[in-house]
Structure formats: C-alpha cells, structure tokens
Amino acid sequence: MIYLAKKKEMGSIQLRGRIVPFTNLELLPLTLVKVHKYRTTSGEEKCFLTFGAEEKRVRNRRERNIFKIGKYFHHYVTFPVGNHTMELGRTIDQDFSVGEFLSATSFTKGKGFQGVIKRWSFAGGPATMGSSQFHRKPGSLGSERDPARVLPGKKMPGRMGNKKVTIKGLEVLNISGSRIILKGSVPGWRDGLVLLRKGNSY
Q1: Among 63, 90, 93, 186, which residue has the least CB neighbours within 10 Å?
Q2: What CATH class does 13-26+96-127+134-139+156-202 carry?
Q3: Where are the alpha helices (DSSP H) in 37-100?
C-alpha cells in the first residue's frame, strides 16, 4: 500500500538525551477513482487501483471524461493489488502507529546546472602562485592516445538535484490528526509530494 503526504517542515528535537532530526508531514486522504483489470499473455489476471488526493475543480472536458465518480484531484497514485472489495469513490484514511518504520520517496531539490566544485566537491585549482583562470575548472578529462576518449562516468559539470530518492528506516515519532512526524530527513522542498510505504522497502 502506498500513502501520500506533503512535506511541511524539518528540524531537530531532543530525544532520549540525543539531538535527532525530524520531518513533519501532512497526510493526504486517498479516494479510489479507478480500477484497472487486464489479463497477461500467460493468463494471469492483474489488478491496479488508482487513488486521488487533494480534490480540485475541473476546467476542461477532457478531465471530466477520465473518471466516473464525479471528483477530480491534483495528485494520483497507482499500485497493484491482489483482491479488493472497495467501491469507487471510497476514501481511505492512512493508518500508522508510533514506533513503526516507513520508507519515503520524493524528488530532491533541483540545483540547476552546476560546476564540479559544487556538484562533486572538487578542490579546484590554486588560488595564487601563477594560477591563471584555473580556480574552479575540472582539469584534465581523459587519457592520451589510448583510449583517446573520455571514459563513461567521468565526473563533469551538469545538472544537479531533482532526483528520485528513497529513504528507508524512518521511525514514526508522533501522530496528531493528519500530521505525522518521522525521525530522520526526507528529501524535497516544502509542500512537496512524498510517497510513504510501510516497512524498509522501495
């Protein structure tokens, strides 16, 4: 089962005599909007459920024809299930307990195009002693005649951040209404969407 939440804030608290980081998330109620059923080439029947979060107003005809329940949402999540008895339009609450471990998946903050010093922590060139316009450059990129090319995986300037990351082993510290506090850091920006799964799994 996949749950949706919004990242609200991060900080640190004193827990059992130690300073530990925490992340405050706002849980979003999920509404079943569509059931996908199909049969594979081997004859096995697959079933997927699509849930929506954060209801919105529909502004065009195309969105009205997607779902049959008459509600439309900003976010959707689809995952496979075995057998289900849920009806369309039913809203499920996300149930967690204190002390449980979760896995959180979200996108990291985008940093744009960055050089090798910020992206890969290169030391850079000398600041003085005859150094001319080589302070933040990467340096040599490849070999000479053999192999006469830049090998794949070379650390070079490029786009940094905006990667899908999963953090495992986040302990639930407190639950208050629709807010949940996790022990540890969750990547992403404020009000960013976070996928939560029970257990230490991807």
Answers
A1: 93
A2: mainly beta
A3: 61-64
Q: 3-state SS of the chain: helix, strand, coil percent to 5?
A: 5, 50, 45
Residue 21 structure tokens:
């980081």
Residue 130: C-alpha distances to residues 57, 127, 133, 135 (Å): 64, 9, 10, 11
pLDDT digit string, tens, across residues 106-147? 999 999 999 999 999 999 888 888 888 889 999 888 878 888
- Confirm if 66 and 73 have CB atoms less than 8 A apart: no
Name beta bridge partners: 123.
none
Residue that is written with structure tokens 């149930």 in the block: 95
Q: What is the Cα 119 distance to its own chain's centre?
A: 20
Element spanning 139, H or E: none
- The Cα–Cα gap between 146 and 178 comes to 61
Of 12, 28, 29, 73, whose CA–CA distance to 194 is shortest?
A: 28
* 42 phi and psi angles, rounded to 5 deg: -85, 0
